[in-house]
Amino acid sequence: MELLRSYLSRVRIPEPTNRIYKHECCVSFDTPKSEGGLFVDMNYFLAFGKDYVGWNYEKTGNPVYLHIKETRKPISEDRPSKKPTLLAIGIEGGFDNSEPEYEVSYEIVILPNYVTLPFPSVELPEKVRLAVDAVIMAAGAERKEQVASWTADKKLVSKHAMNLKQLDNGVIVPPSGWKCEKCNKTENLWLNLTDGSILCGRSNWDGSGGNNHAINHYNVTGYPLAVKLGTITADLEASDVYSYDEDESVVDPLLAQHLLHFGIDFSSLQKTEMTTAERELDQNTNFDWNRIQESGQEVEALFGPGYTGLVNLGNSCYLAATMQVVFSTRGFYTRYYLDQNLKMAFDNAPADPTVDLNMQLAKLAHGLLSGKYSIPATKEDDAVDTTNSTSTAKQEGIPPRMFKSIIAASHPEFSTMRQQDALEFFLHFIDQVERINAGNPNFDPSRSFKFGIEERLQCPSGRVAYNKRHDYILSLSIPLYKATNKKELEDFQKLRAEKDAEGKELSADEIVRPRVPLKDCLDCFSAPEEVHDFYSTALDARTTAMKTAGLTSFPDYLVLHMRKFVMEEGWVPKKLDVYIDVPDTIDISNMRSKGLQPGEELLPEGGDGGVKLVANEDIVTQLVSMGFNYLHCQKAAINTSNAGVEAAMNWLLSHMNDPDIDDPIPKEAKSAPQYSDIDPLKVDTLVSFGFEEELSLKALLASGGDIEKATEWIFNPPSGTSHMETSPSSSAAAVDAVLPDGDGRYRLIGLVSHIGTSTHCGHYVAHIRKDGRWVIFNDDKVGVSKNPPIDMGYLYFFERIDN
Fold first, then answer.
1. pLDDT at position 639, please?
2. Residue 423: which of 431, 412, 415, 434 has the closest Cα?
3. Where would I find the UBP-type domain in this sequence (predicted)?
4. Which helix or strand (DSSP H or E) is residue 213 part of?
5. Rounded CA gap, 186 and 348, in Å?
C-alpha cells in the first residue's frame, strides 16, 4: 500500500472531458475478455493488453493501472427460448440477442513488478478510489465515438431552405451529361439551387477532387444552397444538400420544389406498384445477394495469419471489404506488418496513439495478418446463421473502431454510420496514407497504386496539346453494345414480352444479363472522344477537338472501377445489370501513351506572336453574370490570353486592387503577358516545392502570378493547356519517372463486389486470391470460395506480373 501511496502524484481523477479507453487496447485488439484482460493507465486513461502495458510504462513512466478482466458466466441449460412477437432485439417479446453474460473483476496493478492490490478496498487511498470509480462509471471513449457516429448523420434544416431565392433564368438541368461550367470536371458536381449553375466541388491538397468552383461561385454571388448531382434519387431525404453559408450538410424540406424549378420532376417517381423492370431488379438483387455471398453453399471456414475477419460496426462493410484487399498487397503488407512491429509504431506515436494513423494502421495490419485473433469462436458464441451459409465454425473477428474513427476524422461522410461507396473510401484512404508518408515517399505504400494518365487533344488545325495527371484508379465505362451474348439477349427480350402479355413474372433463372468482355471496357478508355467547345489557341476560336488517353506508367497494382451506376432519362437512377468477363491475366501494354511525337506541333501558348489579343466576349459575359465589372472582365480575359473563365477569374481575384484596374484599355489591345513579367521570387518559391523552372513560369503566367493558384494549375491544368514542352525532359516526364512502372501484364488478385441498387446502400463483399485459392471475406466470415463472382465485381485489383 505504501508503494501505491508513493505514486499518488501519477494518479489522476478523470474530468468529464477526458477520453477514457477501457474496452479495447490502443495498440492491439485485446479486450477485457482477452486472456490477460486490459490495463487502464490511471494517468492518461489509455488501455493496453497484457503484452503491451509494459511498453506504455517504459514510454511514460506511469506505474499505476486499473486491471479489468471479464470472465464468462456459465449459461443455464434449461433457459427457455421464447418465440419472438416483436421486431426488436434484447427486449421483452423481441428476439433473444443470445449474448453471453460476463462477470467483471477489477484490481490495481503497479508496474514494473506487477504488484496487485484488490479493488474495491477501503484500505486504498481516497484519491485512487475516486479515480477508479470515475473510470468504471464513465462511458468508454470507444462507445462515445460509436454513439457519435450514429448521431452524426442527423442533419439540421437549413435556415435558407424555406425562403430560398430562385432566379427565373430559364435553366433546365438535363438528367445526364453534366460537367462543370468553368472547367471540364464531370465528377463531384454541385447544382446551385438559386441559379442552376453546375460547378465542381472542393479541391484536395494534392490537386485531386474539384477546382473549388462551387464555393468560389458562392463567394461571388452569395447563393447558399447546392445539391450534389448523382445523389438525387426518388428518396430526396438521401440527397446531399450543402449550405456554404452554414458550412455543413443540411436538410432542405422543399428540395422537390427547388429542383422542379430547374426541370427536375420527381412526382412521376412516386409509384405505388412495382413495374416489370422493378420486379426484375428485385429478383436480380436477391440473385446477387446469394451469388456474391455464396449463400446456401457449405463454406469451409479458414483461420490463421491473413484470414481474420472484420466485425461490421454498422454499415461498415465498405471499409472491411476494401481493407482486406489493400492489406493483401505487398506494399501495405510490408510497410505496416513486416517492416514495422507494434512496438516500433507505438514508440513513434504521439502521447495518444489512438489519434495516430500510422499506429492504427500497424494495429489493423497485425490484427488482420498475424493470425492472433483468427481462431474459432467458442461454442457458446456461435450463432445459428441459416441465411448466408451452413458453415460449422466461425470467428469473432476484430472491430476496426479506432481505425475507422481516425480515417473518418477528416471526412464528414465516413464518420457517420451510413453505408458509403467503397470507391470513395478507397480514394480517401489512399489520400490519407500519402499524407502521413509525404516526408518519406520511398516508404509510402500508396505509391504502388499510383500511375500517370496523359490526354492528347488535337484541334482541326492539326496541332496538339497534352495534359497529364495522376490517379489511383482507372474508371471504366461499360459498352453494353459490345455484349457477346446478343442472341441470348434477343431471346430473353421475346420471352419477357410473352410473359408480360400473359401477366406472368420471370423467374430468376430465366433472366439474362449482357456479358461484356473487360477488354472492351479498357478499349473504351483509350478510344477517341470528341471534346466540344474546346478553345484552340491556334484558331483563336472554340471548336471540336479529338481526345485520346493513355497511361504514362503502369503501377504495381492496377485498380479498375466499373461504372455500373448510371442516370436515365427522367432522373431515374439505374444499376446496370451486366456481367463483366474478366480473365485471370490482362495485358494493357497497348495503353501506354507515347507523348509528343516527331512532326507533331503543340498548340501555341496564346495568340500568334504579332497578333494583339482582344477580349473573348463569351468569357467576359460569363464573368459579368457573376457580378464583376465589365471593364475588369475584359482586362482579365486579355491578360490570361482568353484561356477560359477559370483563368480569367483567378486573374480578377488577384488584381482587383491594382491601382490601374479602372484605367481604360488602350485602343491597341495589350498583348499576352510574357515570362519576363513574372516575379522571380515567386518562381524560386515554386522551384523550392520541387517543380521545374519552366513549369513554374508557365503556371504563374496562367494564374496571374498567384503562387497558390499556380500550384493548383500544375496539378489540374485547364483542358486545352499542357504541361508538355517540346523538350523531351519535361517536368511531367520527370514526375512520372519516380512512379512505379513496368510491363503491362497483370494478374487478378482480388475484387470488391456490391449488392444493392446504390453504392450508398446494400452490402460489399471481398474475394481475394490467397495461397492459390479464392477466399471470401464477408465481414467477420472468412472461408474458401467455391464459386467466386468474378464477373460481378465493382472494383477489380490486379497485380503487375514482374519478369
1. 80
2. 431
3. 156-266
4. helix 213-221
5. 41
pLDDT at 644: 75
Q: Does 183 belong to an annotated binding site? A: yes
DSSP state string for 217-252: HHHHH---EEEETT---S-GGGS-EEETTTTEEEE-
All three cell numbers of 449: 497504386
Predicted pLDDT of residue 723:
43
3-state secondary structure of 72: strand
**Hey, what's the cell of 738?**
519516380
The residue type found at 544 is T
**Which grid coordinates are listed for 534?**
474546346
- What's the pLDDT at 386? 39
The reported pLDDT for the residue numbered 567 is 59
User: From its phi and psi, is residue 306 left (phi > 0), alpha (psi between -120 and 50) or beta?
Assistant: left
Name residue 29's amino acid: F
Q: What angle do CA 659, 182, 682 make, to 5 degrees?
A: 45
Tell me the C-alpha distance between 335 and 346, whole Å: 15
User: What's the pLDDT score for residue 266?
Assistant: 61
Which residue intervals of 585-692 are DSSP H helices? 617-625, 630-639, 645-655, 680-688
Q: Which grid cell is 400? A: 476496426
Q: Which DSSP letter does residue 101 get? A: P
The span from the CA of 173 to the CA of 179, in Å, is: 11
- Give the pLDDT means over successive 10-residue stretches in the chain (803 positions): 92 89 95 94 96 96 96 69 49 55 92 94 93 88 55 74 92 84 84 94 62 90 90 69 89 90 66 41 54 71 93 88 96 93 94 93 96 78 41 75 87 70 90 86 90 91 89 92 91 86 80 92 92 81 88 95 73 75 95 90 64 70 79 84 75 77 66 60 68 72 71 56 36 57 95 80 90 92 91 95 78
213 known ligand binder: yes
| Residue 10 contacts residue 43 (beta carbons within 8 Å) | yes
Task: For residues 258 and 421, give the distance between their C-alpha atoms in angstroms, rounded to a whole number.
Answer: 27
Q: Can you tell me which residue has the cell 477514457? A: 20
| pLDDT the model gives residue 274 | 40
Give CA–CA dist 12/131, Å, rounded.
Answer: 6
Distance between CA atoms of residues 756 and 758, nearest Å: 6
Start-end of H helices in 294-378: 317-326, 330-333, 342-348, 357-369
**Roughly what angle, to the nearest 10 degrees, separates helices 693-702 and 680-688?**
120
The pLDDT of residue 286 is 56
CB 119 within 8 A of CB 106: yes
Other Cβ atoms less than 10 A from the Cβ of 582: the count is 20
Largest CA distance in the chain: 100
Cα(527)–Cα(482) distance, rounded to whole angstroms?
Answer: 14
- pLDDT for 464: 92
Give 735-739 contacts, CB < 8 A, sequence gap 24+: 735/452, 735/468, 735/470, 736/452, 736/468, 736/552, 736/553, 738/441, 739/447, 739/450, 739/451, 739/452, 739/470, 739/552, 739/553, 739/555
List helix spans (H) across 580-716.
617-625, 630-639, 645-655, 680-688, 693-702, 707-715
Structural Rg of the chain based on CA atoms: 30
Which secondary structure element, helix H or strand E, spans residue 198, and what is its range? strand 198-200
Distance from C-alpha of 266 to C-alpha of 253, rounded to nearest angstrom: 14
What is each CA distance from 703 to 105, 713, 718, in whole angstroms?
66, 7, 11
User: Grid coordinates in use for 157?
Assistant: 434544416
Please count the helices (runs of H) and the strands (runs of E) in the chain: 22, 27
* Predicted local confidence at residue 670, as pLDDT: 45
- Separation of alpha carbons 90 and 490, rounded Å: 52
Which residue in the list 26, 317, 459, 521 is annotated as catalytic? 317
List all residues 6 or more positions away from 154 whose beta carbon is below 8 Å from its beta carbon. none
Q: How far apart are CA 25 and CA 102, in angstroms?
A: 19
Active-site residue, from 258, 754, 763, 767? 763
d(CA 386, CA 390): 6
pLDDT of residue 234: 60
Active site residue 763: yes
Name residues whose C-beta falls within 8 Å of residue 772's C-beta, 6 or more positions apart in sequence: none
